[in-house]
Amino acid sequence: MELGISVSVPGRIPAELAFQVTWSGIAAQTLSAAEVNCISGEVSCTTRFSIRPPLSLVPGSYLLSLRAFDRLGQSAMVTERVLVTD
Predict the structure, then answer these.
(1) Dihedral angle at the C-alpha atoms of 36, 7, 2, 33, nearest 10 degrees?
(2) pTM, to two decimals
(3) Lesser CB count within 10 Å: N end or C end of the chain?
């Protein structure tokens, strides 16, 4: 699944543990800035990247939340409803 995001955080984006993806609060994945094609040290990022739903998810509609963290632990969140199919 390909996602497109535009996000700004209060401080600068760290290199590691920069993004957390949650699928309706069921499963979470942590991604680095490089994994979502963002540059660490910046305060905003507009990008497209691919992600695979966790294998434990059954087909259905999920609220996908992407939380972007800055170096101080503050965050911004983007949410979107997605449909997971076979």
Answers:
(1) 10
(2) 0.80
(3) C
Query: What is residue 86's predicted lDDT score, i.e. its pLDDT?
Result: 75
d(CA 6, CA 28): 20
Sheet arrangement for strand 60-69: 27-31, 19-23, 60-69, 75-84
Residue 22 is which amino acid? T
- Predicted confidence at residue 76, as pLDDT, reads 87
Q: What share of the chain is helix, strand, coil (3-state, %, to 5)?
A: 5, 50, 45
Could you give the residue ranges of the DSSP H alpha helices within 2-67? none
Residue type, 48: R
